[in-house]
């Protein structure tokens, strides 16, 4: 196999998005468009990936990190000009280069691999990824000769009546012999109404040199969708949602209402888990088997075990074990660790805390900056008072402790193993193991007071 390279075009400002956010960083399926492209192209056996950046270069580099090399297009003078910026990385290399736009988040590694294979089999100098569009209006038409080689690409506005009937369109993704590409780029002219250097002109130059130019038609038009405005962004979101949900359902996950369920393309979900409507599973979330998520639940960057239920709740950046029951209306904030068989009930907030096996906070509690042991019962209204206005402090509740309703634990404080805290207490000192701590005023009844 010859050397293979990729050039990702990610320098356009995207003015039609009408956004302060750089176009290729707009998310689809919870992940920036350009990240989708890089993740897919990285599945191929490539020697080098070069991202062409311009507007917002620093933010794109922050997103992609060291997964690619970079070339900067200082002025946006067209797609051919953009690819030419990769010359310092690729110009002298032998092999094949695939050129992809950073605003095509739905393209898959499988399609790109098929494009590369077709290019090699045809011994072509250039190959265009095409698709069949039921409504090809606005797209460049791909005109083939009798042998199936590309005769030319005709823009919609320049097509004659016969060419307008062609439904095979240019998707903007190409495959080139690398040396032929950079030789042809030097010959591209900007003698056009926009005064820009266009990559499709490379195809015409190769044809003029009697080189073989081929086309590979993908079966999925939606996969080639380029996002230039918010309307197309919403279309891409719908396509991605449909693809991801179908993947999980085919792998044994029950999604009750796929139209109203949103799952990240990076999420992993085990068999026989049920996802109810209104659920958003985002980031690198991993959910085990036989769990129930939703309805109306948000889980982001969490690890969730088997047989766990999370209903009408929010969980972010946390670890949640097996056989856990959360919700309704609970909030698991970042850096929390929920062990097996824990119950987190309605209107309970857990923040940067650990809950040991089989512990319970059934309702109306705040547990922040705490280490809670196993088999602990936190009564209704239990609060770890962790903040003094300047610093956060740790509360420790050891195994088997019982915290009565409406108790305040003023951190830093430790409640020992098997200890009891009486309801309504405000605890400011450590409670020894097996002790009962009562920290409240004595009850006084004043007879006849109301009269």
Automatic annotation (TrEMBL):
Protein name per UniProt: Bifunctional UDP-N-acetylglucosamine diphosphorylase/glucosamine-1-phosphate N-acetyltransferase GlmU
The enzyme's E.C. designation: 2.3.1.157, 2.7.7.23
Key words, A-Z: Acyltransferase, Nucleotidyltransferase, Transferase
Biological source species: Metabacillus hrfriensis
